[in-house]
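[Structure tokenization] protein backbone as discrete codes
[Encoding] learned vocabulary of local backbone shapes
[Protein] chain in single-letter code, fold in tokens
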Amino acid sequence: MRHLSVEILEAIHSSVLNPAELAGKARDKSLEATLARVQNRLIYGMIDDIFHLAALYAMVIARGHCFNDGNKRTAFKAMEVCLEANDISLAWNTEDVGDKIILVAQGILDDVDLAEWLRGLPSAP
């Protein structure tokens, strides 16, 4: 499984921001510590497959609020990049995926539920 680094996530974050939004990381948050949550689950065998890994990236980023703006968009894009880096391309419905990421950020949906939803999506043509 291919993983996402801090540098990749910072680049993803920069790519999703609109010109008027505040760039950069939130002062009181650590992107490194947020990503360590993913690494810990990997070390302890708590990741089922690539869908689960991608969903976990989305969850820790959406809930970690490591960036000043664009956390949910960064979470989605990180999930997509993780899947694509592992040769999985899904057909996204923008509204549906946006709703799922909002539920993840609110703590209503967790990584296991999001991974299950991802597994049910069709592959992109």
Remarks:
- The chain has one domain: 6-14+27-119.
- Residues 71 and 80 are 14 Å apart (CA to CA).
